[in-house]
Amino acid sequence: MKTTTPDWKQEIDRRHGSLVALRRDFHRHPELSFEERRTAEIIAERLHAAKLQVRTGLGRTGVVGVLRGERPGRTVAWRADIDALPLTETFDAPFTSSAPGVMHACGHDGHTAIAITLAEILSARRAALAGTAVFLFQPAEEVFGGAQSMIAAGALDDPRVDEVYGLHLTTQTPVGQVGIVPGPSMASADFFDVEIAGRGGHGAYPHLSVDPITAAANILLGMQNLVSREVAAYETAVLTVGQIVGGTKHNIIPASAVMRGSLRTFNDGVRAQLKQRLADYAAGIARAYRTEARLTFQGDGCPAVVNHAAETAFVREVATAELGAGALNDGPPVMASDDMSLFLHERPGCYFRVGIAPTDGRPRPHHAPEFEMNEDGLPVGLRLGLSVMLNALGR
Ligand SMILES: [Zn+2]
Ligand SMILES: [Zn+2]
After folding, report:
1. What is the DSSP pairing of strand 53-58 with strand 62-68?
2. Which CATH architecture group holds 6-184+304-393?
3. Residue 207: pLDDT band by 50, 70, 90 thresholds?
4. Residue 153: how many CA atoms within 13 Å on its side-chain side?
5. Nearest to 367 by CA among 174, 179, 172
6. Which of 7, 20, 284, 335 has its C-alpha lying 20 to 30 A from 301's C-alpha?
7. Does residue 175 have a pLDDT over 90?
8. pTM
């Protein structure tokens, strides 16, 4: 394992200011999923200026930069997601979001700035570089659409990528620490709607109606039993109903009700089993109440992030060499999801976490208006990315 030599470290130090400035610029101008036009334009400009081969509009607003080294080697991709969330930021700083109701509350501004800087540093040393580095700037991670659309557009095929890596910044981990988990490391996610159809009427005469509210309540309570009774005890799954909509008034039985929820697990088999059983279960309970239920899933959802064994061991080795064994802080499995999983379905690789927790101890949860990153974590991510790419390209 080669670590980044002292002159690489100097290079990272030298770029610290511009890395932070770039992240702050993306933070000030966040864009929602598949609307990342300004972001994509800046990425393309910077990659062009660094003399990479650039493709834009890939999978709608995605950008791919290809950097061919002058020595033979492997083709290795680095993936960064670039989209923001529909939230209003509460943090007050000169670089606070200028777009009303839109905010980088997941750290993708940092991912984008790290990936651009990584491409620029490697490009400046092209003569010494082995292999081909492919930088995948993926739109629309937050709606689980961007990875799929980029893969469909051939992002991994031209040139053909051998391995794919990437990082997610996390406020749950202190700066200087990383989480590199082999196997399942982030949960799958599927969003579902249950529409229950009954027959409306007066609240005083339920026997003359078909009540969808009572049916919905029983489906809701009962569906948790699928997790406890039908999933093996050594597997995990989480079912959450986040919305129930139905009715207008105290004394009117409505004609219909809708529940919306999410299903998460780490295992493709459990995921398929529960998706099927949820639909059967809702329909069966609905029938018991003389209603009809139809369960539909929104799109294809997102499989679990499953890191490949050899590539994960490799990233752990790199991180240990760069940061020391004490920096490895894997933590419990993450029930959140990320469509990096689709790239890892296509090619071997590893998706790891890099700490950006602020030091004052106040929680800054991702996807919350008070999210805020400790920017000292950015150069740590850059350094690891650089070392992962250099070592993987030259293997
Ligand atoms: Zn997110
Ligand atoms: Zn994210």
Report:
1. antiparallel
2. 3-Layer(aba) Sandwich (3.40)
3. very high
4. 20
5. 172
6. 284
7. yes
8. 0.92
